Amino acid sequence: MIALEFLPFLAVLLVLTARALWSWRRASRIRKLEADLPAALFSMAAYEPGVPLETILSDVAACSPEPLRSAFATCVRQVRSGVPFPKALQRMRLQSGSRLLDRVVQLLQAAYRSGVDLSDVFRKVAEEAYHLQRLQAQRREAFALQKYTLYAGVLLVPALLGLLSARTDAASSAYGTSVFWGLQFYLASFGVLSAAFIATVQSDRSALPSRAASLALCGLLVFHTVRSWGA
User: How far is CA 35 from CA 9, 12, 92, 110, 172, in A?
Assistant: First the structure.
């Protein structure tokens, strides 16, 4: 059973974990969209000059996987319902959350305004996107072990320190109080630094605040739980 004084920590932890899970799902969706975007750009580059961008976008949306299909299809539906094409592109740009798609939308808007052929531009952007994705994949693989080691440490380190703290309290109450507060500061700092490292490796800092708070609170919750059992 969890002591009543731990329930506020647990409630906050659950809220932050839900927030972190939402951020993780959003980041996964963006990564999937960006992974499929280069193929869509190559398809756009294959069209003959003079084909309307609305037609190109509609055709590419029909053969693209999710979530890219939904992003393009929503833009096409808005255009067909009367929304100006530049405004529909702007909405897609704001809703996607993808920096790569943001760049592509800027190219689409420039092409719509000027009417120039951007086949070569689409092709070059697609090649750059493939290159960046390979670099990001290599970076994630290189730091995968460190990332999961930190996740494990957020659980194991507080458990071990909780047992040591309980024994220290039994030996000396004055010394144990100093150790108690020092360990809490260390565990909170460890959680925040672990979250910062993971965010840097994943190149996704949007979830850093919620992840940092979740890891810090998780470590403190494990510490207090184990400490109360070992007392």
Answer: 38, 34, 17, 23, 58
d(CA 217, CA 210) in angstroms, rounded, equals 10
Instruction: At 58, list the tokens.
Output: 């509609």
Whole-model pTM over 0.85: no
In this structure, what token pair is assigned to residue 130? 């493939």
User: pLDDT by residue (tens digit) across 112-157?
Assistant: 677 666 777 778 777 877 887 787 778 777 777 787 888 888 888 8
What is the CATH superfamily name and number for domain 29-139?
A: Type II secretion system (T2SS), domain F (1.20.81.30)
Tell me the Ramachandran region of residue 203: left when phi exceeds 0, alpha when psi lies from -120 to 50, beta otherwise. Answer: left
